[in-house]
Amino acid sequence: MDAEIIIAGAGPAGIAAAVALARRRRDLAEAGRIVCFDKARFPREKPCGGGLTGHARAALESLQLAVRVPAVPCRSGRIVYGTEARTVALERPVDVVRREEFDADLVVQARSQGVIVVEAEGVMSHEVDRARGVVRVTTSKGRRLLARVLIGADGAGSRVRKQLLAGEPELRARPLRLFKLEIPAPRPFADEMIYDFSPMKCGLRGYVWLFPVAGGRLNVGAMHTSASAHGLGSGDILRILDRTLARHGVTLPSTARGWPAWPYTPRARLAGPHVLCVGDAAGIDALTGEGIAVGLEHGLVAAEAVEHALNSGDLSFATYTRRVRLATVGRELALDRRLARCLYGPRASRFWLSLVMFDRRMRELYASRVCGSEVLADKSASLLAALARHIVAAPLRLRRLSRAD
Ligand SMILES: Cc1cc2nc3c(=O)[nH]c(=O)nc-3n(C[C@H](O)[C@H](O)[C@H](O)COP(=O)(O)OP(=O)(O)OC[C@H]3O[C@@H](n4cnc5c(N)ncnc54)[C@H](O)[C@@H]3O)c2cc1C
């Protein structure tokens, strides 16, 4: 056997799974048998808003990984719709990092915990040999390696996931589209995260963000959920992004690039014998398009499942999809999938948008999730109370929303 565990991808999800396993199974780490392959060489380009929320912080702490790269601590978030804006304080700041720097440093830290990271060599395909109890992995350099477990942490376009689900009916939802660019800030910006929902009136099913980055720069972008095949095209989204940024006094020096990402679908299978998926390979947050905290938390769940499988000898991972669904990360993703359908859905979106804009307690509740002090999926009573309040207040709030257009 070449390795006990091979991990395809050394982004946050792959590194979290690898480090969590190295901590649980020191014997494997000391023998160099936890091996991550990444097709890129670090630092590699990674499109992302780079916001490390409270849940990301907590996961990093439990993995004894530190944020050692430049970060801008944002102590508030501002949500905007037309002429209306609301600021919500964050009891713990969200640190905005540059993913290129952050991910490269995580690789360095993982190596110091005994994880082997092989760069510039991707996982091309795998084959499960159930009789021998192994998975055979072929890399981009033509190596054929044997392992007991393969973890697919190879991001949104995951080859591992595609091969896992080959021939099965497609359960995954339509992809989100995310566009991003980092630019010099044209004027001083406060250390706060801006989420602008104004373009929803032009058909964007998502938002435009402006986050401060170290060195007087801005990370700007747009997220769009394509609920149907006949939604906005990339050109439309880029025009919307340009127009929205102009209202914040920002002109883009060049065109933002777009990437697809598939949202998490609770029913879709995440594992098969000897193989399991984490992070974007398993699905991103449909409400916000966020996935750093998700990937880190997901890596922890995967490591627990792999340790259990190695100890019990049952490498079927038959319960892994359910295990993720019941974990905090899965429950939060499932809730956000429902909230995304409300907020970005074709019919009632203004009803939900006016709730987000004008219900202070709802915004504070969401902020406490962002800070990591609450799990929103455990707050159904508070969410229902917010909905009840909103049903009463909606006529007035909807009028205010119309005036803000
Ligand atoms: C424009 C944009 C903005 C975003 N903004 C935010 C944000 O503000 N906050 C947030 O939390 N999330 C954000 N996200 C999402 C976040 O970037 C991802 O959810 C997160 O990076 C997922 O981590 P991951 O480890 O699963 O995947 P990745 O970080 O994508 O890592 C996957 C790794 O796998 C490697 N790889 C790919 N194929 C192979 C292969 N075949 N073999 C080996 N290696 C392979 C890649 O090189 C990469 O290093 C954004 C995404 C986009 C596109």
Question: Could you explain how this protein is built, in words?
Answer:
The protein has 405 residues and is of the alpha/beta class. The protein has three domains: 3-50 and 98-172 and 263-332, FAD/NAD(P)-binding domain; 176-261, D-Amino Acid Oxidase, Chain A, domain 2 (2-Layer Sandwich); 347-404, no CATH class. It is globular, with a radius of gyration of 21 Å. Strands 1, 2, 6, 7, 8, 9, 15 and 16 form an eight-stranded mixed β-sheet that branches. Strands 3-5-4-11-12-13-10-14 form an eight-stranded mixed β-sheet. The chain has helices at residues 12-24, 26-30, 54-62, 99-112, 159-164, 234-247, 292-312, 320-326, 328-343, 349-358, 360-371, 380-404; strands spanning 3-8, 34-37, 51-52, 71-81, 84-97, 116-118, 123-129, 134-139, 144-152, 176-184, 192-196, 206-213, 217-225, 257-261, 271-272, 275-277. The longest helix has 25 residues, at 380-404.
Order of helices and strands: EHHEEHEEHEEEEHEEEEHEEEHHHHHH
Counted beta strands: 16
By CATH reckoning, the class of the largest domain would read: Alpha Beta
Question: Which class of secondary structure composition applies to the elements?
Answer: alpha/beta
Describe the global form: globular
Q: Overall pLDDT, averaged?
A: 94
List the helices and strands and how they pair.
Elements: E1 3-8, H1 12-24, H2 26-30, E2 34-37, E3 51-52, H3 54-62, E4 71-81, E5 84-97, H4 99-112, E6 116-118, E7 123-129, E8 134-139, E9 144-152, H5 159-164, E10 176-184, E11 192-196, E12 206-213, E13 217-225, H6 234-247, E14 257-261, E15 271-272, E16 275-277, H7 292-312, H8 320-326, H9 328-343, H10 349-358, H11 360-371, H12 380-404
Parallel strand pairs: 1-2, 1-9, 2-6, 4-11, 9-16
Antiparallel strand pairs: 3-5, 4-5, 7-8, 8-9, 10-13, 10-14, 11-12, 12-13, 15-16
Helix pairs in contact: 1-4, 1-7, 3-7, 8-9, 10-12
The protein binds flavin-adenine dinucleotide.
Flavin-adenine dinucleotide is lined by residues 8-14, 37-40, 44, 46-51, 122-123, 153-155, 159, 178, 180, 221, 259, 261, 279-281, 284, 289-293, 295.
